[in-house]
Design goal:
The chain has about 110 residues and is α+β, with helices and mostly antiparallel strands. It has one domain. The chain is built from four helices and two strands; from the N terminus they run αααβαβ.
Length: about 110
Amino acid sequence: MRQCLVSDLGGYYTAERQVGAGDQFGQKGDFITSPEISQVFGELIGIWVVSEWMRQRRPGEKIQIIELGPGRGTLMSDLWRVCLRPLGPCIAVVSDVGLIVVSDCATF
């Protein structure tokens, strides 16, 4: 699977795209994901992160929010929007926000 997706020899996410071909994501791409359809998906994930943080309540401990394969970063953007609202009291304890990217195709 790694060879097919991220190989330097023409993996799906690492291959050069033809000029004007667009990217893999979105309505004009090869596929569309929930965050691209509506921001509600990412915001619900954000609400879940906040509620889990509140439920576990570990004073003084920092948390990391990490997304694997963020594409355009839409999910993290929507999730982070919830953390910045008054609903998101966990903002002060977030030590790191990470986007793990394996290709140069990410556009955020």
